[in-house]
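Input for the complex:
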Amino acid sequence: MAKYIGKEMSRVDGVAKVTGKAKYAAEFKVPNLAYGFIVTSTIAKGAIKSIDTTEASRAPGVIQILTHENYPKPAPPASTELKPEINTNVRDKSFRALQSDQIFFNMQPIALVLAETFEQARHAARLVRATYTPEKQVTQLASSLDKALVPNPERAAKPRGTPAEAFKSAPVKIEAEYTIPIEHHNPMEPHGAIAFWENDKLTIFDKTQGVYVVRRHLATSFNIPEENVSVISPFVGGAFGSSLRPNYYPALTAMAARVIKRPVKVIYTRQQMYTGHGYRSDTWQKISLGAEKNGKLTALIHDSRNNSSTFEDWLENTTNYTRTIYACPNAQTSQQLVRTDLSTPAPVRAPGAVSGMFALECAMDELAYALKIDPLELRLINYTEVNPDNGKPYSSKALRECYRLGAEKFGWSKRNPEPRSMRDGRLFVGWGMATGVWGAFQQPASVRIALKSDGTAHVASATADIGPGTYTVMTLIAAEYLGLSVERVKFELGDTKFPRAPVQGGSFTTASVGSAIYESANNIKRKLLELANKDSASPLRTAKLEDLEMLDGKLQIKNNSSQSVNISELMRRNNLVELVDIHEAKPSPEREKYATGAHGAQFVEVKVDLNTGFVRVTRAIEVTACGKIMNPKTSHSQEIGGIVWGIGMALQEATEIDHRFGRIMNPNLQHYHVPVNADVLDVETMFVEEDDKIVNPLGIKGMGELSMVGIPAAIANAVFHATGKRIRDLPITPDKLL
Amino acid sequence: MKSFKYSSPTDPAGAVKAVSANQSAKFLAGGTNLIDLMKEYVERPNELVDITRLNLGQIRTTTNGISIGALAKNGDTANHPLVRQNYPLLSMAILAGASGQLRNMATNGGNLMQRTRCQYFYDIAMPCNKREPGSGCGALEGLNRIHAIFGYSDKCVATYPGDMANALYALDAAAKVRGANGRERTIPIQEFHRLPGDTPQKDNNLEHGELIVAIELPKNNFANKSYYLKVRDRASYAFALVSVAAALEMNGNSIRQARIVLGSVAHKPWRSLEAEKALAGKPATEETFRAAAEAALKDAKPLEHNRYKVELGKRAIVLALQRAMTGGVSRES
Amino acid sequence: MDDKRLGEDFEINADDSSEISADEEKLLDQLGLFGESRRQFLGRGISGGLGIFALQLLAKEKALAALQSSPDAVFAQNAGLENAVKVSLKINGAAQSLEVDSRMTLLDSLRERLDLTGTKKGCDQGQCGACTVIVDGRRVLSCLTLTAQCEGKSVTTVEGLAKGDELHPMQAAFIKHDGFQCGYCTPGQLCSAVALLQEAKNGDASHVTQNLRSSARNIKLTDEEIRERMSGNICRCGAYPGIVAAIREVQSGRETAQTWHFATDDEIAAVMNKEDKTDEIV
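Predicted:
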C-alpha cells in the first residue's frame, strides 16, 4: 500500500512561494550589478545602415553599449550560416543577437545598453538611433500558402491505404479549413538572466526549462568547456515551452558581463518577449473526412501548413495524432511550412497536438452532424485498440472509459443535438466534446540520491519545476521508495551541479526523473542489502532484493517488519555518513513493442449571449487516462491549467501583426488577452488510472499537455451547438458570432 | 523614461503655476496611464507635478446635485453612497473598467485625461498623428478592430477608451477646471473631449496647465432606470469593444427622456441625440428600443476590421435599455 | 559504484539543513514552518522540511555576497542620479529612507534596492497584477506607482503578510487549495486577496454586484464576486479555481467541494456495462 503515491500532497515549495522567499532567476542579489536594456529593430527585413550610439553613450549612468559593430569577435556563427534542420535538431542553431547587420524580423535586438541602474539603461536605450536599408517583408501565412514547402521530404509521412480514392467514393464526407493565429506563451515571469564571470568560468541565473540546454548553448557561444558554465534556475515563473530552446538573451547577457567585467542583469520587457522566445506558429489546416453511413471512417486527409522564420525551419507537428487516434484504413497527412520574416516559432503547451486536434476534432463534430450520429458515438465507432499505422497494441488505453465516464458525469445523454435548441433564459447553451491525446514519453534522466545515516535523504536532479509541482512529486516518490517521511527528503533541481536531466517539456518529467529516483532508490536498497548481509547474523540473508522494501527507516521484507534491519544503525556500523547513488534511467526497449499514449475525453458547456457575441465556458469536465497519478492535488491543477489554456486559445488569444510593417501590434497583456479569473467557472477532473508498467516502472504518463489538447475543439463544437455557427478561425471573439 | 523633475505641492495654485510655467510639465495623479506611457516613451515630460497631495478628493452634495473631487479615486467614487444611490450609472461604469487595484489608484480627473489605447499610438516605431503629428495614421488602413466608427478623420481613427466618461456624458456632468491665473471655468462634459479632425494630438479642450478640480453632476431622475453595458473580449479587465450608457426617465409607461452614450466607438464618448429622440415620448418596448438603436448607428462608418461594431452597437443599446428598465439590478449573465 | 565512495560528499552539503545557524533557525521560524495546528490546517504533507528552499537560497546569496569584483570592472563615467528624490516610508512596518531616481517605481525600489523580490514584475504596464502591494490599506499596482509618491505611506508586500512565524490565513489557504503553480503571480494574488477582505467588510461593490443602490457592510462574497474582484491578477498557470476556493474559505468560511476524483472500479463497471447493453441493442 503506497504511503504517498496517489495521495494528495501540498506543494513542498508552497511556503517559499506564498511568503515571497522563492527566488526566480533575475532576483538573486549580486554585488556590482549592471543593468542591460535591449534595443530592438523597427523594420522586419533588411540591414542596419547605421547605428548611432553617441547620444545614448553620453546619457547618465551608461557604461557601455553593445551593437553588432562592437560585439566581440570571433562570435559564434550567425544562424543564417547554418543549414537549418527541422524541429528536434535546431536547438542550438537558434537566433543569436548582434551577430551582423542583417534584420530577420521586426523587434529583433540591435543593441544592448548597459548602465548603472535600470532607469538609466531603459532611458538610454531610447536614444540609440538606427537607420536601415529595408527590404519588403512577408509575414502573412494566409497570403503565402502557395509558398509552402516540405523541408525534409524524406521524413514526410507516407499515406496509409488509398486516401484520395476513398475520400472520393465515401458516401458521407466533409471538408473544411481551420486557421489558428500566432499565440504567445506569456508566462507571468518575463525571461531574464544575471550573468557573471570568474576568470573563464561563467555563472548564470537564468529562467529556463533545462539548465543543461543553456549550458551547452553558452559553452558553444563562448567556445569554452561545458564544465566552465554554471546555470542556476531554482524557480521558474511559468514557461510553457518558451524556455526550452536557448533564447538569445542569456548569451547576450553573458557577453555583456564579459565585456564590462561585472555581473549584468537583462530582463525582457513584456514587448520583447513577443520576439524573444518563439510562439505557437500561425497554422492553416484542411481536413477531409470520408465515412460510411454507419459512421465508420474510410478516409482521413489532413493537410497542414504553418509559418516559420527565414533562418530556421520549424514544422508544427499538427498531424501526428491524426494518424493514430481513429481507426481508418486510408489516411494521409502532410506538414508544410512557409518561411516568413518573423522570429522562429517554438513549442507552446501541447505543441502541434492542440493545433492539429482542434482541426481534427472540429471536423469530427462536423462529420457527426453530416451523419446525424452523436459526436461521442462517432468517436466510439472509430475507436482503435492499436496504432493504425503499425498495428502495435497500446500498452494501455482507457480512452473508452474516459468517454463513458465523462458522458455520464456531464449528462451527455440529455443533449439535444439540434443547434440552438438549448436555452438558459436569453443565453444559448451549447454542449461540446472532444478527444485529448498526447504521448507517454520518457527521456533519459539522471538523479543523485544521498541517503544519510541520520535518517534523511538528499535527492537531486537538474530538472526544472516551471509550475507542475516537480519539487513535490519528486520528494514524494523518493520518500515512498526510500521509506522516509516526506519531511526527511530534500529534493533539489535547476542547477548544472546536479546530474543531467532532460528539459521540462513534452510532459515527460515525472516519467523520466521519477523513474530515475525509483531505480536509484532500488540501487540504494541493493547496496544496503549487501551491507547488511556482510553480517552473518543478518535477518535478510536469504531475502531476495525484490521482496524487500525500505519503510520507516528499516530495510525489511515487504509487509513484515519483524524481519528487518535498521538502516541508520547499519550505516553507522559501517562508518557511513551517507550512501550515495547516481543513476541514469532510460526508457525500456519493451516500449518498442507497443503503441503508447495518454488519452482523455473533454466535455464543455458554453453559454452564448447572441446579443453581444460573448461566450462563457460555464462547465468543463476532463476525464483523463494517463497512467498512474502521483499527486492528484497538483495533477488536478495541471488539468485546470489545460482547460484555462484551452479557453484562451478557443476564445481570446491572437498575436496580431500589421503585415505592412511585419510588426506585432499587441505585444502586451492589454491587447493580447489571456483568461482572467472571471473567465473560469466550474472545472472538474476525473482520473481513470491505468496500470501500465510498460511505459515505465512507475506507470507514469504525462498530463500537462494532454489536459489542453481537446479543449479548444470542445469549446468550438459547443459554440456550434449553441449558435449553429461553425467558427473555424480562432479565436472565437464576440465579433465572429454577431 | 526620460528623467524628470518631481514635485508634490499641497496647494492647487502652486501645482497649476508649476505646470503652466513649463510647456513640458505634466500633472501626475494616479499615474495608471501616464507612467505607462512614459515607460513607452510616448509621453516625455521633463517635469511631473504630483497633485495627489492636493485636497481635491471630496464627494459632496451641492445645491443642484453632487460634486466629485477630481482627485477622488475611481474606486471610492463608485462606492460612495451618494453616487451609488443617486447616480448608479456612474458606479456601474467605473466598476466595469480596469481592476480593483487600478481603480484604487486612478483618479476621476485622470480618468477623463486618459489617452487612447490604439496600438499605433502606443508603439513609437509606428506612424501615429496623435503621438507625432504628420507621421500618418497607422490604424486607418491597418489593424482597426478596436477603432472608431463615428467622428474620425483621415488623420486619426482612435477611440477614447474609458468607461467613466460615458456615464458622465449621459448624466450631463461638467468639469470644473482651474487655470494659470487662478481663474476657474466650467466645461460641460460634452465639450470636454474633442474629435480628432486635423489635430488628433489634442484629446480635449483643456489648456496647458489647466487643472481639473471637480466633476459636477446635476440632479436627475435617471437613478431608477439606468444601465451601463460593456462588451469586451473577456469577462473582465479588458477595454470595451463597445459599451453603452443608457438612462431613462419614465412618465408612466412612456419614456419622458433618455440618454444613450456609446463608448469605444469614437474619439470621445458618443452621445446619440438621434436615439434619445427616438425614445422620448415612446412606450418602453423592444420595438422602441430597436428603433432607437437603428437611429443611433445609422450614420456609423465602419473601417475594414470593425464592421461588427455597427451590429454590436445596436444590440448592445437594446440590451442596455432592457436592463435599465429592470432598474439596473440584473447584472451580467 | 564502489562502497568506499559511498561516504564521499562531493557536491552539495554546504547548505545542509541538519546544521543550521541561529539566523537560519530564526528564518525558519519566520516562515512559520513549525507548529502542529498550522500543519493540520494546511493539510497533509505540509511539514517541517519546507524551510530548505529559504535556506538553500540564503546560502546561495551568502556565496554571491562574497563575490570578488574584477579589478578591470567598467563603471559609468557619469553615474550620478539626475532628479533624485528623498523618500521616507514604511515597508512591512519598518521605516525606510531612500534616495531614488524620480523615475524609480515602487516596484523597482522593492526589488532592486530593498531586496524585497517577493513583489513581482510581470508586465511593468499595469496589465497583469503581479506587482500588487498594499499601500495604506489598499491594493495598488507598484509598477505604476512612483517611489517618490510614497512619501509617508505604509507599504505591505507579500513578505509582510505573515505575522512572525504565523502564516496569514490567506497564505495558508492558498497552499491548501493549490492556488498557484509556478508561484510568480502568487504574491500579487495574495496582496490582492488580503486587501479584498477589507473591501468586502466596507461593503464595496463590484461589476457583478446586483443592485448598486442597496448597500451593506460585511458582505459575504459569492464565487462570482470573488472571480470578478480577482480579475486584475492574471495567473497564466490558470490556478483560478484554487484561488477562489482559498479566498472563499478565508472570507466566508465556506468549504469547497473537492472537484477531482479517481474513477472507482464500480463507476467504470457501471458505465462500461451500460455500453455493452447499448451495443447489444444496436
